[in-house]
């Protein structure tokens, strides 16, 4: 990555879309949480966070004040962070950890001042300390968030953390210049984009509510599979399906069964899934928004049994992964840049007016298989790692997944006006039963 960047640079198309979609009552923050084998020193961790932010420019940005007459949004890059945004909780047990997690992720992150993330360190005694990060999705995607965490851990351990030679702004600006002909055909291009992303004139299904904890905020349910349970999922794969396809199919089917149990029709399920657009040369590098949001859809006739649904899901995701398809999607997203500013800003405002048709039922974010970024013998060892993507109402539930050292980790994120804790666990049990072949009908 080049040594110096301008003091101001534009939001890319993904940043801007997420900025317009963000809402203080339903903030677009991402969860990343790591439990280590022992205690973490607060001062040493604070220094590590500052060091990692120095290495990743998007962790040192704020929104520049708007310029009169300008329709462009700009990031302002700060040389250094004055202080690590770290809250510390002592004598933490599982219930206080749950409360700290809820508090961290239920508060919006103001982007007028740096940084675009917040951290909490929970001292949990013999259970191992926990570092929690909430990062605004406007600043980076989940891949970038994990890369930022790697830098924190390596700085804490006193290890080197080489950065790629790829120019950050070049990666962010690729395909940014719009075709001026789009300005005369904005609505048609917008309709084409929304069609490619899986939207239709009919509203997507919603998940039936079951009690509520509160009117605002998020809660989380972590579920960790054993190595044997994780390996057993491989037996469910068929027809080229990936573990991510299995999770997607189980989530669609769980929503169908949950709604049926609660007397609510389902119809078309539309599931948001971030897809990494980074080239293979730096696939897991660069803390920035470089992921495309796509929709994976199922209809009632495809959800009659798990295998049929899995086939339909796999067919969609395979098509989306094809380089040509992805190139079309990326081009269409950049075409959005060619629309007038008022039209770009109006897209989120259209959601309630159209019955939330330009939305989705749920979201699935999967960081894939991860090996510890720290060498054996380091004084910090990773025990657990949890991720969940942003979740904007009326989407009441999102699922995050990753596999750390052969253990699948699932994080169910839900709005507290969608479920009570008991209701959320009841939904999760349906999901987990679907992944258990003995329990599947």
Tell me what you see in this structure.
This protein has 441 residues and is an alpha+beta fold. It contains 12 helices and 14 strands. The strands form 3 sheets. A 6-stranded mixed beta sheet has the order 8-14-13-11-9-10, with helices on both faces. The chain is globular. 42% of the residues are buried. This is Condensation domain-containing protein. Pfam families: Condensation. Residues 30-319 form the Condensation domain.
Write the layout of secondary structure elements.
Blueprint: E1 8-10, H1 13-21, E2 29-36, H2 42-55, E3 61-63, E4 74-77, E5 86-89, H3 94-106, E6 117-122, E7 130-136, H4 142-156, H5 168-173, H6 186-196, E8 218-224, H7 227-232, H8 243-261, E9 269-276, E10 291-298, H9 306-321, H10 323-335, H11 341-353, E11 362-370, E12 382-388, E13 397-404, E14 407-415, H12 421-434
Parallel strand pairs: 5-6, 9-11, 11-13
Antiparallel strand pairs: 1-4, 2-7, 2-12, 3-4, 6-7, 8-14, 9-10, 13-14
Helix pairs in contact: 2-4, 6-10, 8-9, 8-12
Q: How many strand elements?
A: 14
- The end-to-end span amounts to 52 Å
Per the principal axes of the C-alpha atoms, what is the gross shape?
Answer: globular
Average pLDDT for all residues: 86
Strand percentage:
15-25%
Radius of gyration: 21 Å
Summarize the structure.
Helix content is 34%, strand content 21%. It has 441 residues and is α+β, with helices and mostly antiparallel strands.
